[in-house]
Amino acid sequence: MDQAAPIISIQNVTKRFGPVIAVDDVALDIQPNEFFALLGPSGCGKTTLLRMLAGFEMPDAGTIAIGGQDMTEVPPNRRPVNMVFQSYAVFPHMSVFDNVAYGLRVVKTPTSEVDSRVREAIEMTQLSDLANRKPDQLSGGQRQRVALARALVKRPKVLLLDEPLSALDAKLREAMQLELVNLQRNVGITFIIVTHDQNEALSMANRIAVMEGGQIRQIARPSELYEFPNSRFVADFIGKMNLFEGRVSGRQGDKLGVEVAGIGQLWLPVAAGIPAPPEAGAVGIAVRPEKVRLRRQGGEANRIGLHGRVNQIAYYGDTSHVFVTLESGRTLSANLQNEARSATLGIAVGEDVWCSWDPGDVLVLTN
Length: 367
Hints:
Elements: E1 8-17, E2 20-30, E3 35-39, H1 46-54, E4 61-66, E5 69-70, E6 81-84, H2 96-106, H3 111-124, H4 140-152, E7 158-162, H5 170-187, E8 190-195, H6 198-204, E9 207-212, E10 215-220, H7 222-227, H8 232-237, E11 242-252, E12 255-260, E13 264-269, E14 282-287, E15 293-295, E16 304-315, E17 319-326, E18 331-337, E19 352-357, E20 363-365
Parallel strand pairs: 3-8, 3-9, 6-7, 7-8
Antiparallel strand pairs: 1-2, 1-4, 4-5, 9-10, 11-12, 11-14, 12-13, 14-20, 15-19, 16-17, 16-19, 17-18
Helix pairs in contact: 2-3, 2-4, 3-4
C-alpha cells in the first residue's frame, strides 16, 4: 500500500463519559483509499472513536486530523466525511431520488448539479431502476444502498460506516459485504467500518484495529491478525482458538520448551510465535481448530499428538466442529471439512481419537 500522507491521523485521543474512559490514548493513521475496520466487543470504544471522527463527540485529549487539517474546531457539517448509520435513517416520505438529493439541496447546490450527482450516485449503488420508489417499497439491502448513495453523493474524503449491515439477514449481509468492497474500490475513497463481527471485518477490510477496553490491542492485515495475533485476547476474539496456559522451561537451539498443564513438555520452533526467553514465565499456547487433524491411530512423526474422546459434534453444512475431551480433562476442538456428500463424518460421539498438529502451527503468546 502506498504510504503517502495519511488521510486520517489520530494522535493520543482520549474520551471520558464521567468515570468511564471510553477511548484511552488511541493513536493510529489511516491511509487514503483504505478500507479500515474498527473491530471489538460491545463497549470497547469503537463507535465512540467513529463519532469523534464525524464530530459528534469531542476528544478530552489528543487530536484528530483529516486530510492534514486539525478537526478540533471543525463542526460535523464542515468535515470532509459522511456517516452511514446502523438504522440507515432514510426518509420514509421521500423517493429514493429525493432521499439521495436531500443533503445537496440543503446546502443549495444548483439544480442541474443535483440531478447529475444524484444519478451518478444511484447508478453507482445500483438503484437506477428504483429511483422513484419509496423506502417502504424497498428491501433491507436496497434501503442500505440508499443510505450509502446519500452519503456518497456529498463526495466525502472518508465514509464512516457504523455497523451498517447488522440489521440484514445472514445471506443478504454476506452479499452486501461484497458490494461494499466493490463500491469502495470503484469510488476510490477511504471507508472506515465499525463492527463487532469478526468475519465481516476479515472479509472486507485492508487493515483491522482490534479494540478492547478503549485501547487498540493490534492493528494488522486480516491474514496477519488471524495467523499471528499478538495476545491472548486477540487470539481468542478473532476466530476460534484452542488456548492453553503454559510455562517456559528452557531452550534447545532454535526450539522453545514449554510445559503445558495436562499436556506435558512441548518443544516449539521459536519462529512459530513470539520469541519468549525462559525468564518470560507464563505463556499462552494456541492452535486454530482447522490446524488440528483427527485420526484413530497416533504416532504421527513430527507432530504434537494427544489422545482423547469425542464428546460433541456441531454440524454446519460445509464444516463440522468436533469437541474432544483429552485425557487431562481439557477440551480441544477441531474443524473438519465436509468434503464428501455424506450424512456421517466417519467419527462419532464417544469414539477414541488422536488429535495432532504441526508444531509450526502453534502460537506462543506472552500477553
